[in-house]
From TrEMBL:
Organism: Exiguobacterium alkaliphilum
InterPro entries: Csp_YhjQ, YHJQ-like
Pfam family, any one: Csp
Name recorded for this polypeptide: Four-helix bundle copper-binding protein
């Protein structure tokens, strides 16, 4: 099963790493209150991507449904990150949009 989803697992892992980096970087910004929604969505996105990756490695029958939910959260995270000019947010937006696209394909 790992080989079947190898590219997808890599995309999910990249999204988790990028969201976690963005989250930590947001906590270091001068106006952390302005970053609260970004931080929350980074955390949600990383958690859901991790759960989807685990489900894929178990060959769960719910991969399409979980991928659909993951796409929604990845898109929301990307849209929030896009609002901020910080490099870590812009990179997170890019990676989350890529992950959302991959999840959309899995959900179809």
């Amino acid at each position: 099963m790992h080989r079947i989803y190898a590219n997808e697992l890599e995309t999910l892992h990249d999204c988790v790493e990028t969201c976690n980096y963005c989250l930590e970087s947001c906590l270091e910004e001068k106006d952390v209150k302005m970053m609260v929604d970004c931080i929350r969505l980074d955390r949600e996105c990383a958690a859901l991507c991790t759960f989807l990756a685990e489900a894929m490695t178990r060959d769960s029958a719910f991969v399409p449904e979980l991928a659909r939910a993951c796409a929604v959260v990845c898109k929301a995270c990307a849209q929030e990150c896009e609002k901020h000019k910080h490099e870590h947010c812009q990179e997170c937006a890019r990676v989350c949009f890529e992950c959302a696209s991959m999840c959309d394909r899995l959900a179809a």
